Amino acid sequence: MPAIAAPSAGLPPSSGAEPADGTDPWPELKWYGWIGDTSRSRPEPTDTVLHRFAHSLPGYGVFTAEPDSWSEWLRLLPLAAPGTPVRNFRGEIVVPGDDEHLAAVVAIDIGSENVQQSADVILRLHAEWRWYVNDRRMLYLSDSKAELPLARWFAGERLTTTGAEPTWTRQAAPKPQRDHADFRAYLDGVFTWSDGRALLAESVPLAPEKLEPGAFFLHQGAPAEVLVVLDVATSPAGKRAMLLAQALNPAENIHVLRPNRDSVWFPVRTDQPVRVLRAKPYAWQELRRLNPLRSRPEVECIGSLCPQGPPPAPAK
Q1: Is the pLDDT of residue 165 over 90?
Q2: Which of 87, 249, 253, 298 registers the highest number of CB atoms within 10 A of its CB?
């Protein structure tokens, strides 16, 4: 039985003061590309999921995660200050900061339009983690199974909405210097064309006994709804609990849920559905996990992004 996981690096001091030795008080912030991206507004981060919640379930050990893993990345997501309300893309409050079922708001942008909807939340988080580990060969699908590779976006192509299918057209010069702001714009293009059908194609069912951080429940529909598992804890007796996050439709802040004022951990009871704030109950048959992101390792560049030079010599 693992002990409660400790952070892999220092956490922000509660006073907010800089350490006397000048070291970085919160090195994990470098894991989250949107923190330094000024192209979108977001809540200011004050601490992390781990710092605020991991020790709130005495006697349980959280899911063992390797440093820099997807699970560790989720566990150290930056959170806005306690009492921050959930707002939609228009800036309107949809869940007050003192709601008994709201645990925290994740300090990540949602954009100013109704694009990053509920089913996009799991893709947004996983894509941001891939950005952190320097995986630039991402390839998502539209609802019609059209391929939406990041490489085409960086090559200057853009998705157009002139018909029922996404179409790529060259609209900008290629960008050899790939920054997060352009990556974030690409994700909005993906979110425009993907919903529940695309997410079904990019994932597989997950048995409840294999529950792990990064799993999600999917309500199919138009638009679809997703409930993300941020962390899993287990007691010595084998009882399990999970930490859950969501963002509903229209687009709104990703936020951590609580079943009641006394806890942020939802007991894992596979004989009954999972009940959360503002959504119909989730059945365990709706539990899924993402496939490895679709990519074509043999295609690393497009057009002028490809290395220029003489062709290779013919084989003898």
Answers
A1: no
A2: 253
Tell me the chain's radius of gyration from C-alpha atoms: 20
Please give the helix or strand (H or E) that residue 115 lies within, else none. none
Q: Quick one: CA dihedral 267, 273, 274, 278, positive or negative? A: negative
What pTM value is reported for the model?
0.86
Least confident of 30-44, 224-238, 281-295: 281-295
308 — alpha (psi -120 to 50), left (phi > 0) or beta? beta
Element (H, E) at 169: strand 167-170
Q: Write out pLDDT tens, residues 84-101.
A: 999 999 999 999 999 999
* Residue in the block written with tokens 């048995």: 207
The answer to whether the beta carbons of residues 133 and 296 sit under 8 Å apart is: no
Do the beta carbons of residue 6 and residue 68 sit within 8 Å? no
Check the CA dihedral 265-124-75-43 and report its sign. Answer: negative
**C-alpha to C-alpha distance for 171 and 201, rounded to whole angstroms:** 29
